[in-house]
Design brief:
- It contains 12 helices and 4 strands.
- α10 runs antiparallel to α11.
- The protein is an alpha+beta fold.
- It folds into 3 domains: 88 residues, no CATH class; 136 residues, no CATH class; 74 residues.
- The protein is elongated.
- It comes from Flavobacterium urumqiense.
């Protein structure tokens, strides 16, 4: 059996180790040569590289300055069911911006520098808690729509999102602006609608009538409570005294007064936001855009110029080597 076993030659093993050692040495020598060539390339072309870097930084700074854009945001509340109206008006303004219709933007909308505005958009501010607050029917609607579907998609769905209270009107300009130049004209334009003005007038009038009625009822309740208090204290004794058979009746009167007072507070706050059809709650202007390459060209261009120079150098070197081979052939 021992005659069939393979015989290992020590010389073969020594040759294998020698070859492996040579390959490792050759690999590191190749890396060393590559590093040296890179250093030689940068030293040899130092002046050109410095010029490219300086030009790249300078050109990048110039482009960063002239290509600056600014974002602006208006948090608005469309009243009287005017959400679709708001979206259609913003879409109209956006279409006119794309068309370059500066006459419409200046004369109809009232934007003083229409060429400065680049785009405009409106999106809902997702606030599900506000959406279902004191509105159990909205909560039930969301539950019904969410059956078997992703709740996040339901909340961001176009039909649902347009019913949120607040919406963000965002637009972009080439330069910094004053609110009087762009924001105020846009808000004024959105509020120029005869139909919703009539609804606004009637809605405010109805609330004011309701508040007057509530004040009257509260005064009557105060009279009842004062009469009861006087009766208890014995301050007044006459045939017009009001008698209560059960304390629950008095409790109901007090609860009614409390409810009416709460209603009055809600109405007063509500009237603050009903002075406009599209109420601008807050405005944030002149936020410099930092996404994409804006503001970064001073870093990007020098690197781009350097890589382009290296690529051209390698291409020419390859081209010359191939031409030499072709001539030798």
């Amino acid at each position: 059996m021992s005659a069939n076993l393979p015989q290992h030659n020590p010389d073969d093993q020594e040759i294998d180790l020698t070859q492996i050692s040579k390959k490792i040495r050759s690999f590191f020598e190749g890396i060393s040569t590559l590093i040296f060539k890179c250093i030689r390339f940068f030293v040899k072309n130092a002046i050109i590289i410095i010029i490219l870097l300086v030009v790249g930084v300078g050109l990048g700074m110039f482009l960063d300055e002239i290509q600056k854009t600014y974002d602006h945001q208006i948090i608005a509340t469309p009243n009287f069911g005017s959400t679709d109206y708001l979206y259609s008006k913003i879409d109209l303004i956006e279409s006119k911006i794309k068309e370059g219709d500066t006459v419409f933007l200046k004369d109809v909308v009232g934007i003083k520098k229409p060429k400065e505005i680049l785009k405009i958009d409106v999106k809902p501010i997702v606030d599900v808690y506000k959406f279902i607050e004191n509105k159990p029917e909205n909560f039930e609607l969301i539950k019904l729509m969410a059956e078997g579907r992703d709740i996040n998609k339901i909340l961001e769905d176009n039909m649902t999102s347009k019913n949120y209270t607040s919406h963000a009107i965002t637009f972009k300009t080439k330069r910094t602006i004053n609110d009087s130049e762009t924001v105020e004209p846009i808000i004024n334009y959105l509020n120029e609608t005869d139909y919703y003005k009539k609804i606004q007038k009637e809605t405010v009038n109805n609330i004011q009538i309701k508040m007057i009625q509530n004040d009257t009822i509260i005064s009557q309740i105060n009279g009842i409570l004062n009469g009861f208090s006087n009766m208890v204290n014995g301050a007044q004794k006459s045939d017009k005294l009001i008698y209560y058979n059960e304390n629950t009746q008095l409790n109901d009167v007090i609860k009614t007064k409390e409810t009416l007072i709460n209603e009055q507070g809600i109405y007063r706050v509500k009237l603050v936001g009903l002075n406009k059809i599209v109420k601008d709650n807050s405005t944030t202007s002149n936020i410099e855009t930092t996404n994409s390459v804006n503001g970064r060209l001073k870093l990007i261009l020098p690197i781009l110029f350097l890589l382009s120079f290296i690529f051209i150098h390698l291409f020419l070197k390859y081209y010359r080597s191939q031409m030499k081979k072709e001539k030798l052939a």
